[in-house]
Amino acid sequence: MKNLVIISTLFLATIFIGCNTKKIKNNHIAENVNQVKSPSDTLTKHLKPFKPELPTIGLLMFNGVLQGEVIATSDVFGKPNQNGKQLFNVITIAETKKPITTEEGMRFVPDYTFEDCPKLTALFVPSGYDMYAQVHNIQMVDFIRQKNKETKYIVSNCAGAHLIGESGIADGHKIVTYIGGGKELQKQYPNLKVQNDSLVTFVEDGKFSSSNGNLTSYISALNLVEKMTSIEHRKFIEQYLYIDRLQNWKK
Question: Where along the chain do its domains lie?
Answer without folding.
Answer: 2-36, 56-247
